[in-house]
Design a protein that fits this description.
Blueprint: E1 3-12, E2 17-19, H1 20-25, H2 32-39, E3 43-45, H3 53-68, E4 77-81, H4 92-100, E5 107-111, H5 117-131, E6 136-144, H6 154-157, E7 162-172, E8 177-184, E9 192-193, E10 196-199, E11 202-205, E12 210-211, H7 213-235, E13 244-247, H8 252-262, H9 273-276, H10 283-293, E14 302-309, E15 313-320
Parallel strand pairs: 4-5, 4-6, 13-14
Antiparallel strand pairs: 1-7, 2-3, 6-7, 8-15, 9-12, 10-11, 14-15
Helix pairs in contact: 3-4, 7-8
Bound molecules: acetyl coenzyme *A.
Length: 321
């Protein structure tokens, strides 16, 4: 049986940290106290004008490849999860493949599952590797969400940031990714969306992120608890054996509620939402890489990663690191 294990991680945060007070100074009608109390977010990063998701993805990818100690030419699958691609097409993944100089004809494509995109990408890569069709995948979450924020909507613009995270997943004789679960329910598409499109050279509809915050909160807490239990059961492991929960970094209160439902103490939960805000598809791999480089997550430990995003989409993976 072919398994898939994580060989290396990397990430990229653009520019300087922008604090809540910086947002106030930029004219947004909010306060550090409101944002901190409701979300736990202290700061986020924004890409400079013209900096694209593929550029952030490339930096994160190079760091992950260096950590994995493999040659770029050995990567035969590139998956980029993003809702803020450089172009309508070609995919951001093909731009990353080109930027890395990979010329081996391997597959490259984007995944669109919003904040759950990285979990979707990881689960897809694991299946490609387990099938024997591919041997080494680069899975990336990269976003420039600042481009789709309505700065006059204080209920949403304070929540998000830009960034990228990546990992190299490779074929292995020993288990790495032990179980995955992916779900979607399109019946909830309208509570979190960017309901615009391009036609006849113009944007039609609304090109900004719109959200019913309370509906999202309730939905996220419910499905994150359920999908976490699902992968734990599917992998046949105990709750106690989990060393780290690496959840989607949307809001500290959602993270705390999920940890409580799983009976996990907060000192087993990786949190970066205070420093990064919600970076959508980038949030899980960014948090993972930060925890690896900080020496929190170590080889041999057991991880539970999970995400939830617009669509609605949700999913989780149980991983021996
Ligand atoms: N600063 C100050 N006041 C604000 C701000 C702000 N940035 N935003 C809203 N308010 C005000 C509102 O105008 C309202 O004022 P009013 O009572 O005078 O009308 C008041 O605060 C309460 O507004 P609510 O929207 O009811 O605030 P709520 O307590 O629901 O908190 C929040 C909003 C933080 C968005 C919350 O609903 C939440 O955390 N939802 C989860 C959403 C989330 O995490 N989304 C991320 C994307 S989805 C994902 O990644 C899964």
């Amino acid at each position: 049986m072919i398994h898939a294990r994580i060989a290396g991680t990397g990430s990229c945060l653009p520019g300087e940290a922008v604090t809540n007070d910086d947002l106030v100074a930029r004219g947004i009608d909010t306060s550090d106290e409101w944002i901190m109390t409701r979300t736990g977010i202290r700061a986020r990063h924004f890409a400079a004008p013209g900096v694209t998701a593929s550029e952030l993805a490339l930096v994160a990818a190079r760091r992950a490849i260096e950590a994995a100690g493999c040659a770029t030419e050995d990567i035969d699958l590139v998956i980029v999860a993003t809702s803020t691609p450089d172009y309508i097409f070609p995919s951001t993944a093909t731009l990353v493949q080109d930027g890395l100089g990979i010329r081996n004809g391997g597959a490259a494509f984007d995944v669109q599952a919003v904040c759950c995109g990285f979990v979707y990408g990881l689960a897809i890569a694991e299946k490609f590797i387990a099938s024997g069709s591919h041997r080494r995948a680069l899975v990336i979450g990269a976003e420039v969400f600042s481009r789709i924020l309505d700065w006059s909507d204080r209920a949403t613009c304070v929540l998000f940031g830009d960034g990228a995270g990546a990992l190299v997943l490779e074929a292995s004789a020993v288990p790495g990714v032990r179980a995955t679960a992916l779900h979607a329910d399109g019946g909830h598409h309208s509570i979190l969306c960017v309901p615009g499109s391009i036609a006849d050279g113009k944007v039609t509809g609304d090109p900004f992120l719109r959200m019913d915050g309370q509906a999202v909160f309730r939905f996220a807490v419910k499905v994150l608890g359920e999908v976490a239990r699902e992968v734990i059961n599917r992998a046949g492991v105990s709750h106690e054996s989990i060393d780290w929960l690496v959840p989607h970094q949307a809001n500290i209160r959602i993270i705390q509620s999920t940890a409580k439902r799983l009976g996990l103490p907060m000192d087993k939960v990786v949190t970066t939402v205070d420093r990064h805000g919600n970076t959508s598809a980038a949030s899980v791999p960014l948090a993972l890489d930060c925890a690896v480089r900080a020496g929190q997550i170590r080889a041999g430990q057991r991880l539970l990663i999970e995400g939830v995003g617009g669509g609605f989409t949700w999913g989780a993976a149980l991983i021996d690191f």
